[in-house]
Amino acid sequence: MPNAIEIAGLRKTYAAQGTAPAKDALKGIDLAIPAGSIFGLLGPNGAGKSTLINILAGLVNKTAGKVTIWGFDQDVNPRQSRAAIGVMPQELNMDPFFTPRASLEVQAGLYGVPKRERWTDELLELVGLTDQANAYARNLSGGMRRRLLLAKALVHRPQILVLDEPTAGVDITLREMLWQNVQALNRQGMTIILTTHYLEEAEQMCDEIAIINHGALVVRQDTRSLLSRADGKTLVLDTGGRVPLPPLPDGAHPEWRGDGRLAIGYPPSRVRADQVLDALRGAGIPILDVATEQPDLEDVFVEMTRP
């Protein structure tokens, strides 16, 4: 299957409430997510990410458009499309009086998974909750509760896993454990959709990234091509100390850093690195060492979501 999810003309309008006017949360989203990929869905707060995820999960009714999940039209085959996707929500929503084992058994029952096909013990081991299997959820730490949410999203063995801010507020150990599990699931063929505010995380994990802003799709590209869209690089030079600088090519911006090094930002589309270096050498400025800093996903994100 080439695409795990296909979205066409997706719109969601929330009706006016009291003095609040109607709001267009999604404005005609067209998006295809390849099967077997780790796909990043990014955007600032209020961009429409959660609305899109909730529509995929069957929790919110769309206003218009078509959603196909693992080949099933959401309107024609709602049960099959919902069974193909598992969602790990951002909120820690669970019954405090259930144990992790009981929570997984109930969740499996809700999805109609026969008892002989359940893999509760394996899931508990996968997320590191075997020792807490029979403890009440109210006694689990925040990190353990987040692990339980991941297990609940996997009880019905979905082909697609949606992770909504999965590492928000968790420690480094849990974050590493989570990503090891996710990467292992992806190697087995599971499609992963990730929303996160940790842009470095998306840069390292995702094959492709889509950025949504104000309910519209701003850009969708593979991660490497998206990073190349930020028209800015930085030369970091050791000149042996602060020295007067000559005129530099138009578009180059010098700045002395606290460690005494000279940082010169420049747009590669208009300025070449050798032009900057030639200007410095021509003025007799020694260059003892030079390094280049590339733009990161945060630079692209800010540029793409700028008002």
Automatic annotation (TrEMBL):
Domain of life, per lineage: Bacteria
InterPro entries: AAA+_ATPase, ABC_transporter-like_ATP-bd, ABC_transporter-like_CS, ABC_transporter_ATP-binding, P-loop_NTPase
ABC transporter domain location: 5-239
EC number of this enzyme: 3.6.3.-
Gene Ontology molecular function: any one: ATP hydrolysis activity
Keywords, sorted A to Z: ATP-binding, Hydrolase, Nucleotide-binding, Transport
Gene3D superfamilies reported in the protein's UniProt record: P-loop containing nucleotide triphosphate hydrolases
Name the record gives this protein: Daunorubicin/doxorubicin resistance ATP-binding protein DrrA
Protein species of origin: Paracoccus haematequi
Organism classification: Bacteria, Pseudomonadati, Pseudomonadota, Alphaproteobacteria, Rhodobacterales
Underlying gene: drrA_1
